[in-house]
Prior knowledge:
It is a single chain. By secondary structure, the chain is of the alpha+beta class. The protein is 25% helix and 38% strand. The chain has an eight-stranded antiparallel sheet with strand order 1-2-3-6-7-8-9-12. Strand 1 and strand 2 (26-40) form a beta hairpin. Helix 5 runs antiparallel to helix 6. It is globular. The two termini are 43 Å apart. The protein binds 8-azaxanthine. 8-azaxanthine binds at residues 159, 170, 226-228, 254, 286.
Amino acid sequence: xxxxxxxxxxxxxxxxxxxxxxxxxxxxxxxxxxxxxxxxxxxxxxxxxxxxxxxxxxxxxxxxxxxxxxxxxxxxxxxxxxxxxxxxxxxxxxxxxxxxxxxxxxxxxxxxxxxxxxxxxxxxxxxxxxxxxxxxxxxxxxxxxxxxxxxxxxxxxxxxxxxxxxxxxxxxxxxxxxxxxxxxxxxxxxxxxxxxxxxxxxxxxxxxxxxxxxxxxxxxxxxxxxxxxxxxxxxxxxxxxxxxxxxxxxxxxxxxxxxxxxxxxxxxxxxxxxxxxxxxxxxxxxxxxxxxxxx
Length: 295
Ligand SMILES: O=c1[nH]c(=O)c2nn[nH]c2[nH]1
């Protein structure tokens, strides 16, 4: 037997950082969960019980905190790149690092119409995620992600004209509920240096906000022929708006809401155009994926 691939490190490292602005007496918080895995000349720690090449996962965890203290944690793409580059820079036998960051929502509370200086709320399980791989001599591969954005539209969605055969029971519909939990990911053209990323740092927040707004606008306004057709429009728009992005991927579960036939109860009409009461389904669910690139 031989070792075909290996990477190791620390996962589920929870990090909180506060920025205190003395001038405006306003505080800003960031909370994230970080995974950082290393690759390199570490084979003998697997094959020969030789721990000498092992930068302990505890050391990785310490480095995550030190890097967060000594550098900005926003945008997460910049923090992730600084963290990923640290290991191959300091340890010659580590050739690559893979950093995955989940940024949790702390939205500033509006009190009596005014943003509060140091109070926040968790308005949804939606997160902003970043995946950074730094490989010596190859630079940075960065993907940014919007994850877990739960949306529903009560009409404006149809699904008909699909293939029918002896396995098909699904009825065609011209008016259905559409609900999904958006995972949207965009991959940036490769960066070679931290300085290039730092000088371009504003593009990451701007693109995240634009991708989120595009997703919500197209979800709401598209007269959806299918999940597939609507998600493709989202990808097209994000690519058109963001020259620095080379691919956009969406993963959309189709969270079904089934009509409840109540006609057995005194002929109560609750199907088709009379449907008002539905049964939300936990599963099974459709799962629709796509990756869209420039022509
Ligand atoms: O939007 C949809 N796409 C599909 O592929 C599908 N299959 N069943 N329902 C569906 N809805």
